[in-house]
């Protein structure tokens, strides 16, 4: 009954969206969309607010000056974005630009597929900054082969390994470059008293109960595991957990666990506890986002003041440089800046808005949206390294704009903190060998309805294997159960979708 009601609601919403796409009044938008009295382009923007309060006009006025626009923001708090966006989509209360960060939301996907927003793919190459968006990014941000907005370009692959460099030096160990060397470091950190307190109270890895953002998925990249799915040349789809690399990663984690080289409660440890335990000197290896290094060092102040960290993004299982790989979270797509046809009524208006987004991607505007005004919010040295002058003022007047940046990396200006600078460098380097999910933009109705529930079968079986509660046969039986419960249908749907879009 609930499913029927949900389908009826979706149908009603879709009809409403189609009607709003055909025209009507510009409810909730800037009524003077096009040009303001001073000749500037007027832009209305329905945007997501990821801070407690909206920004003041201090930086906004400078952004308007740099882009020759008058901007009218309508802010949606991040905590209620799903509900508010659903309501805005259903009622047609949109704006020239709508920030869509929840592309897996059914209402958003229905709106995109219903033709509510412009397909911008034919226009991007007319603008230098938009033209620089990679084909991989465009493909990943597309829905059924159509690009219904400018992709919000996030870091493509941010994970790596963070190791206590002071412990390596104390034990005379080099920085590890292979999974075997990393295992030896984990063994030494567990058995050789790296903190020198005469007590066997340290371990190698400090991990948490998260097979994706914890250690497992990053380690599995080093063994050649695909990112969620792989697709053969003839279009056959295979889930990552049926790959050889996935099994090798489970064996690696099992070896860590069996030998005590990882915290024995990792399967039930929260991220906050993981980071606190690492900062307290209970372990020397952390696998996760490389920019977590700065937070770990901050947490260690007053506890482990001698902590020195080294970040590594080039570990392989083979020792071959050509085998470097790291999984990508969402192929670097943080959402879309979408342009509703009900507000942006023709190509002329679309090109006006696209020029504005192109201008947002300049280093000048990126600097305004990231750091604010020089000598007000930050200072900068001759190497374009930035130091924030007044954190509270920056948080109030600048930080709210951060989530609105169409592009977040690749600029010369940078944070002056050495650890953050190095993390950003390594994360940017990751992009060159990131492993993307080839099906990220494609549709599988069964996966949308049952995917999370089915994935629990694989997650449970993976933990059981690592913890020694099942063997390889048991894990493979769980995979077969996944297939029978809906996995085979998901694979068939993805193969059909892949063929429809890519002709294979």
Automatic annotation (TrEMBL):
Record's keyword annotation contains tRNA processing: no
Matches recorded under SUPFAM superfamilies: Periplasmic binding protein-like II (SSF53850)
Signal peptide start and end residues: 1-21
Keywords, alphabetical: Cell membrane, Lipoprotein, Membrane, Palmitate, Signal
Superkingdom: Bacteria
Protein name listed in UniProt: Extracellular solute-binding protein
Organism field: Paenibacillus woosongensis
Taxonomic classification: Bacteria, Bacillati, Bacillota, Bacilli, Bacillales
């Amino acid at each position: 009954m609930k499913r029927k009601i949900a389908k009826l609601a979706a149908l009603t919403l879709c009809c409403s969206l189609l009607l709003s796409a055909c025209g009507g009044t510009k409810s909730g938008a800037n009524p003077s969309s096009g040009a303001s009295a001073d000749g500037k382009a007027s832009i209305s923007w329905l945007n997501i607010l990821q801070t407690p309060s909206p920004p003041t006009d201090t930086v906004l006025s400078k952004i308007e000056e740099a882009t020759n626009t008058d901007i009218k923001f309508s802010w949606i708090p991040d905590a209620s974005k799903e509900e508010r966006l659903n309501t805005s989509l259903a009622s047609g209360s949109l704006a020239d630009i709508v920030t869509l960060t929840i592309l897996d939301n059914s209402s958003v996907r229905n709106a995109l597929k219903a033709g509510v927003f412009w397909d911008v793919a034919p226009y991007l190459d007319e603008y230098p900054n938009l033209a620089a968006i990679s084909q991989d990014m465009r493909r990943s941000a597309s829905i059924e082969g159509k690009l219904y907005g400018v992709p919000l370009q996030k870091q493509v692959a941010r994970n790596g390994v963070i190791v206590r460099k002071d412990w390596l030096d104390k034990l005379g160990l080099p920085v590890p470059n292979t999974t075997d060397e990393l295992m030896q470091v984990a063994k030494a950190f567990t058995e050789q008293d790296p903190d020198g307190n005469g007590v066997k109270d340290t371990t190698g890895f400090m991990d948490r109960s998260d097979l994706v953002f914890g250690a497992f998925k990053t380690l599995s990249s080093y063994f050649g595991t695909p990112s969620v799915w792989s697709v053969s040349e003839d279009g056959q789809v295979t889930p990552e957990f049926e790959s050889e690399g996935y099994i090798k990663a489970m064996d690696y984690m099992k070896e860590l666990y069996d030998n005590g080289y990882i915290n024995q409660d990792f399967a039930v440890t929260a991220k906050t506890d993981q980071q606190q335990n690492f900062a307290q000197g209970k372990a020397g290896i952390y696998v996760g986002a490389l920019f977590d290094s700065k937070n770990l060092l901050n947490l260690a102040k007053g506890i482990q003041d001698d902590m020195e960290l080294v970040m590594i993004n080039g570990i392989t299982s083979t020792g071959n440089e050509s085998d470097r790989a790291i999984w990508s979270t969402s192929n670097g797509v943080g959402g879309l800046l979408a342009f509703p046809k009900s507000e942006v009524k023709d190509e002329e208006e679309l090109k006006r808005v696209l020029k504005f987004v192109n201008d947002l991607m300049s280093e000048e505007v990126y600097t305004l949206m990231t750091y604010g005004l020089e000598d007000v919010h930050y200072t900068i040295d001759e190497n374009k390294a930035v130091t924030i002058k007044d954190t509270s003022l920056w948080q109030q007047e600048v930080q709210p704009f951060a989530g609105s940046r169409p592009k977040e990396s690749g600029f010369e200006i940078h944070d002056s903190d050495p650890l953050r600078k190095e993390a950003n460098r390594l994360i940017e380097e990751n992009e060159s060998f990131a492993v993307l999910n080839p099906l990220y933009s494609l549709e599988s109705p069964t996966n949308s309805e049952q995917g999370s529930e089915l994935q629990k079968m694989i997650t449970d079986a993976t933990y059981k294997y690592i913890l020694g509660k099942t063997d390889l046969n048991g894990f493979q039986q769980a995979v077969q159960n996944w297939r029978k419960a809906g996995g085979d249908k998901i694979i068939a749907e993805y193969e059909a979708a892949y063929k429809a879009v890519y002709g294979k």
